[in-house]
Design a protein that fits this description.
Number of strands: 0
Radius of gyration: 26 Å
Structural class: mainly alpha
Order of helices and strands: HHHHH
Largest sheet: none
Oligomer: single chain
Shape: elongated
Number of helices: 5
């Protein structure tokens, strides 16, 4: 039963590549149009958050996995010397290199999505000051005029 979470963690980069990367490519297309830049900025923030969450799961599992090897490496260093330990570490790095390379797109997406979201937010706020305020309520002119001078019955 413990193999299921470990297998799922090994599949995280594949899930990421087929889920988040096409989403980010679509957002790049949306960022090219001025009308959809604020939506693209929000999408890049979401992509960065999901990427960071998946990356943190993968890093936590890797740290747990590597701590198990840490005791073995220290025992080998104390019992067999540095030459055998170096060969053992070289074998570990060689076996896990593809897994480490699979994490690089996740790291790049977190970094570039964050930078793109910040840039697009600044670009949309410079183009149209109200573009970032999607949920701001607007009062009709007659209600706004009645509230200008009158503090109202419940305000002191």
């Amino acid at each position: 039963m413990s193999n299921v979470p470990l297998t799922a963690i090994n599949w995280l980069p594949v899930i990421f590549d087929w889920g988040i990367v096409p989403f980010a490519v679509a957002l790049i297309g949306m960022a090219a149009h001025r009308e959809t830049r604020h939506i693209a900025a929000l999408g890049f923030l979401i992509a960065a958050g999901i990427s960071a969450a998946l990356l943190s799961l993968l890093v936590a599992a890797s740290v747990f996995f590597l701590f198990g090897y840490g005791r073995a490496v220290i025992a080998m260093l104390l019992n067999f010397g540095p030459a055998v330990t170096r060969d053992y570490l070289a074998t570990l790095v060689h076996q896990n290199a593809l897994r480490l390379l699979a994490v690089l797109p996740m790291i790049a997406t977190v970094l570039f999505s964050t930078v793109a979201a910040i840039y697009l937010r600044r670009a949309t706020s410079a183009d149209a000051p109200d573009a970032g305020r999607l949920f701001r309520r607007r009062m009709p002119d007659d209600i706004a005029a009645s509230h200008n001078g009158d503090p109202g019955p419940f305000r002191s």
